[in-house]
Amino acid sequence: MTTLLEMKHVSKKYGNGTVALSDVNFSVNEGEFVSVIGPSGAGKSTLLRCINKMIQATDGEVIFDSVNISGFKGRSLRKLRTKIGMIFQNYNLVERLSVIENVLHGRLGYKSMLSGSLGLFTNDEKQQAYHLLEMLGLKEQIYQRCDQLSGGQKQRVGIARALIQNPKLMLCDEPIASLDPSSAKTIMDHLKNISDSLKITVLINLHQVDIAMNYADRIIGVSKGQIVFNGAPSQLTSGDIKTIYGSDASNLMINIENHDRVKVAEK
Amino acid sequence: MSQTYFLTKRLRSLVVLGVIVLVCFGSSVLTQFNLSQGIAAIPKAIVWGFSNFYPTADSLAYLSDIWAKMQETLLVSIAAAVVAAIFAFIFAILGSRITKVSNFLAVLSRAFANLSRNIDVSVWSIVLLLTFGQTSLTGFFALFIASFGFLTRAFMETIDESGTDPVEALKSAGAGYVPTIFQAVVPSSISQIMSWILFMIETNIRAATLVGILTGSGIGYIFDLYYKRMDYHAASLVVVVIVISILLIEQLSNYVRRAML
Ligand SMILES: Nc1ncnc2c1ncn2[C@@H]1O[C@H](COP(=O)(O)OP(=O)(O)OP(=O)(O)O)[C@@H](O)[C@H]1O
Ligand SMILES: [Mg+2]
Q1: Residues A219 and A203 in one domain
Q2: For every one of its 267 residues, what pLDDT tens digit does chain A have, with 9 covering 90 and above?
Q3: Coil, strand or helix: which one is A151?
Q4: Which among B168, B174, B182 has CB closest to A109?
Q5: Which residue of A32, A71, A136, A201 pairs with A156 in a disulfide if CB–CB is 3.0 to 4.6 A?
Q6: B15 and B120 belong to one structural domain
Q7: Residue A158: which domain range?
Q8: How crowded is the C-beta side of A208, counted as CA atoms within 13 Å?
Q9: Per the structure, how many domains does chain A have?
Q10: Which residues of A touch B182 (CB under 8 A)?
Q11: pTM
């Protein structure tokens, strides 16, 4: 199994002195579905953004696809980013544009300044956008403006926009935090499906431990900018949850115990 | 406890009111302005207005001259607003916290916009009059500078409000700076920006009369000319033409605004 992503001694200290990440080390294999969990302010968003360099790490190395990308700038950075799709808690769509226009934005990384600015997309790209939207169940909404969509539909547009990049890695920053449970399940199923059928590696920040355990191949627990757990969901114990979430873990532990019980029942 | 809360609040209002009254009284004493005399003069002004300040059949002969000047004024106002909008957009992009390239450029563009905005259009007219002389170009530049300052500020706020989210998304997809602006920032803020440009055109047409009087061009110039010749009938016709033009432009821009939404 080949390694797609490797973080070596990555640290991030913000200008105001906040240490968001300190000495983070882990690696992710190609095709893996990895979930990052941790309390609010633990540094999950920072961690994800240090990978596509939306945030510049203060220390350490990031190896992506066997290349050390720590020093990437300008054109090489843009080219790298086309290989890494990202979806967001707030969907980050241009609300006034139509669904298909938003999806095509995912191709801008491949465009020259002129054709990108003018939004000149090829027929192939439009076809691809159409197929992705069809796959995600948004065929009816293609020409609708995004401000008329529900949260779950917006997030699916976000996924299509990331997929049209032909990414090797998908970074998902709490993609279901603003969604109702049933839309959340739809989104998680789509992401899992993408990972299984398209062999795209997924790194996803989640607030819900039970969902992380249900979907992920591996869980990384972050607390106060440090990785305190890194292993399979089955290895995650109540004790680990306590180390990750600290004192306010009590209500989360109910989840994990239920989860264990369900697993036992299944057996 | 709530008693004292409301009491202090009432006291504060009373103090503010007292200060306002004092300032009004003080300034009218200083300038020897007499309110009762001022009010008493209003009926007289109305009587004078009705007996002298109306267009007559004779003054209609001037209509084609007046209309030619009005056209010039309208075109200068629109051109000033549109050209200013182009520059203002570039400065707003550099100055907005979402799209700024560097902090230095952002501060510089904000300072530049504030300078041109906080000085009134009439002051710019006089300043430019000294450099360019009495041409319609002077009027154009005065309106242009004032429009530029105002629009930069308005555009900057519009862009700020459109939010960082889409910009972040496009950046993370590898899009360059210029495509990000045209694909994310422009679509999010274009209708607001058009609305500000229309507003600026309306404002410019109103200001153009004063600017014209000061710089000796356009509709303001012709008004000044008739007025100083004491041809009040012709001067009043100029006012009628201005009012009708402004109303028409307002209707037009309201229509455009609705069509855009
Ligand atoms: N731009 C910034 N400047 C300064 N400090 C920041 C900045 N962004 C985040 N931080 C701080 O860094 C720490 C980690 O933030 P981060 O957003 O990565 O946490 P998170 O785990 O994603 O939290 P949440 O679950 O609430 O999204 C927090 O203490 C936060 O206040
Ligand atoms: Mg976060």
Answers
A1: yes
A2: 789 999 999 999 999 989 999 999 999 999 999 999 999 999 999 999 999 999 999 999 999 999 998 888 888 999 999 999 999 999 999 999 999 999 999 999 999 999 999 999 999 999 999 999 999 999 999 999 999 999 999 999 999 999 999 999 999 999 999 999 999 999 999 999 999 999 999 999 998 899 999 999 999 999 999 999 999 999 988 888 888 888 665 665 545 555 554 444 443
A3: helix
A4: B174
A5: A136
A6: no
A7: 93-166
A8: 16
A9: 2
A10: 116-119
A11: 0.83
Kindly compute the dihedral angle of the four CA atoms of residues B223, B229, B235, B238, in this order, to the nearest 10 degrees: -40
How far apart, in Å, are the Cα atoms of B220 and each of B63, B189, B228? Answer: 15, 35, 12
- Say whether residue B1 is in contact with chain A using an 8 A CB cutoff: no
Quote the minimal CA–CA distance from B213 to chain A in Å.
44
Query: How far B193 CA sits from the closest chain A CA (Å)?
Result: 14
Of A166, A190, A221, the residue that ends a domain is: A166
Rounded to whole angstroms, how far apart are CA atoms A91 and A108? 17
- Indicate if B181 and B98 belong to the same structural domain: yes
Q: Which of B166, B172, B183 sits opposite A81 (nearest CB)?
A: B172
Number of domains in chain B: 2
Domain check: are A123 and A137 in the same one? yes
pLDDT, residue A79, reads 93
Using left for φ > 0, alpha for ψ between -120 and 50, and beta otherwise, residue A174 falls in: left
Instruction: Starting from the CA of residue A42, give the closest ligand.
Output: 1
Q: What is the pLDDT of residue A254?
A: 46
- Helix or strand (DSSP H, E) at A211: helix A209-215
Which of A81, A90, A118 has its CB closest to that of B165? A90
Put simply, the chain B residues between 233 and 252 with a CB less than 8 A from any chain A CB are none
- Domain match, B30 and B123 both: no
Task: Give the position of tokens 């992009």.
Answer: B93
ipTM of model over 0.85: yes
- B13 and B112 in one domain? no
> Can you give the pLDDT at residue A248?
61
Same-domain check for residues A77 and A174? yes
Determine which of B49-53, B92-96, B238-242 has the lowest per-residue pLDDT on average: B49-53
Domain housing B8: 2-52
User: Which residues lie below 8 Å from residue B227, measured CB to CB, with a gap of 6+?
Assistant: B235
Interface test with A, best of B103, B158, B172, B181 (most A CBs within 10 A): B172
pLDDT tens figures, B2-41: 778 889 999 999 999 999 999 988 988 888 888 888 888 8
A207 falls within a domain: yes
Residues A126 and A209 in one domain: no
Q: How many other CB atoms are there within 10 angstroms of residue A68's CB atom?
A: 12
Closest CA–CA distance from residue A100 to any residue of chain B (Å): 13
Check whether residue B72 and residue B196 sit in a common domain: yes
Instruction: Clarify whether residues A233 and A179 are in a common domain.
Output: yes
Contact A118, B182 (CB under 8 A): yes
Q: B179, A113: Cβ pair inside 8 Å?
A: yes
